[in-house]
Design goal:
The protein has one domain. 25% of the residues lie in helices and 31% in strands. The chain is built from 1 helix and 6 strands, in the order E-E-E-E-E-E-H. The strands form 2 sheets. Strands 3, 4, 5 and 6 form a 4-stranded antiparallel β-sheet that branches. A two-stranded antiparallel sheet has the order 1-2. It is elongated. The two termini are 14 Å apart.
Length: 121
Amino acid sequence: MSESESRTVTVSTLDHGDVTTAEPDWCLGHVDVRPEYRCDTGHMGAAHEATYRDHELAVAALVQDPFAELGSRDVGVVVEMGSLSRRMGPTELRELAAVLVDYAETLNDLAVRLTTLRSER
């Protein structure tokens, strides 16, 4: 299902009661979500994580905030970077580099997906 053929979802909000909006096919859903203000209600896709030896390095996911009052309402990708700080030898450094190269490919794949989603509008 493309975004233009999206399904709908009804969510409870603190300031506008029940609000029905289009739900993109990449959204993981809104089950068991506590009510928020309408402007804070949004869609989130699957998390794409980069980890190194049990350290979370980064997380990226498709997001959209259709009722945002500040910032964009367009679909985008949120990226959070971790705080790994440790001394490494050559082997560990190569392992970390391999994780980061693989994750760069994941981010490029998300950029392609995002380009497709934005062109469907």
